[in-house]
Amino acid sequence: MVGLILVSHSKEIAEGTADIVRQMAGEVVEVRPAGGDPDGGVGTDPERLKNAIEGMSADEILVFVDIGSAVLSTEAVIEMLDVSLRGRVHLVDAPLVEGAFAAGVMASTGADASECIEAAVEARTVPKLRGG
Amino acid sequence: MNSGERTVEVVRAMASAVEESHRELTKLDSAIGDGDHGTNMRRGFEAVLGKLDESPPDSPSDVLKSAAMTLIGKVGGAAGPLYGTAFLRASSALAGKADITPPDVAEALEAALGGVKQRGKAEPGDKTMVDALTPAVAAAKEAATSGSAADVLRAAADAAAEGAEATIPLTAKRGRASYLGPRSAGHKDPGAASTALLLDAAARSLGG
Q: CB-based contacts of B11: which residues, under 8 Å, 6+ apart?
């Protein structure tokens, strides 16, 4: 099974995105938000992220990030993980909300990690306006 | 003092230097960044010392790894993951070594530079830490052919300080300062400045 971790500078964005994914993907897909700095302000909290990754029971873990230092922090945290766990973690190059949504829906069908990643990456180019 | 304890002393010296200079770093960052570099580095190194006191690792590699973990977690912003990666790569370069030779020091610095470039996707001339670390590595490698570990760090620190000064006229290409475009010119890069500061502290702690 594929699980999702959502990293945002904002606690609310990460939690809200998790709500959207759960609504569509259902409870079968493990989704963990890791947003905001250690004090709940705007920023990232690598320790929370590391704990979230280590606490996942999913076989494959897709990590979605928003901007700037969230990307750097996440890459650095992944580099610090135990090798066996690191091999199960994939940082996805996709927009946070749209990408996590697409991957979550795909994961709920029992798709594997590469199919979920593909769906998430495609979400970047899906036009929102007809003919866009 | 064994090499692990000596490495702890080096990290302690770095923490003291950050404590002394955090206002200056924040002032540099206020000019072109978000004005928290000094505060963030101070918080990070305070936590690094706390962790090292609580469970002192034995080897130089483990000391740097402990520091890396804490820096990633506590410094925040881009500097946390960048310095964390630098320490982590230096730690890997020294893994399994009880005695650290001058070439080992140069190799650790080179590994740190590689990590920072990869993580930050920065090249020399982008007005970042890389502009201090790149000349530092070149100077360290040269000094390692004949000098002591202290000489290697002194050469690296002096080259880093020059590299940091040379960021003043540059236009930032990475990080928040890059949004300022040409207006970032005329200010020293705070990351390059803190890199020079840390290397100078490391050199001084070994008597270099």
A: B45, B48, B49, B52, B63, B64, B67
Do B80 and A69 count as a contact with CB atoms less than 8 A apart?
A: yes
Helix (H, G, I), strand (E, B) or coil at A116: helix
Question: Is residue B129 within 8 Å of B116, Cβ to Cβ?
Answer: yes
Share of chain A above pLDDT 90, in %: 80
Alpha helices in A1-132 (DSSP H): 11-25, 46-54, 69-80, 83-86, 96-108, 113-123
Say what the alpha-carbon torsion angle B100, B195, A51, A65 is, to the nearest 10 degrees: -130
- Per DSSP (E only), the strands in B3-43 are none
Q: What is the pTM of this model?
A: 0.86
Query: Is a pLDDT exceeding 60 seen at residue A132?
Result: no
For A71-121, what is each residue's pLDDT tens digit?
999 999 999 899 999 999 999 999 999 999 999 999 999 999 999 999 999
CA–CA gap between residue B85 and residue B79 (Å, rounded): 10
Phi-psi bin for A44: left (phi > 0), alpha (psi -120 to 50), beta? beta
pLDDT at B104: 98
CA distance A104 to chain B (A): 27
Identity of the residue in A45, A75, A80 whose CB atom sits nearest the CB atom of B69: A80
What would the two tokens of residue A126 be?
A: 């899906």
Q: Chain B: give the shortest CA distance to residue A44, in Å.
A: 7
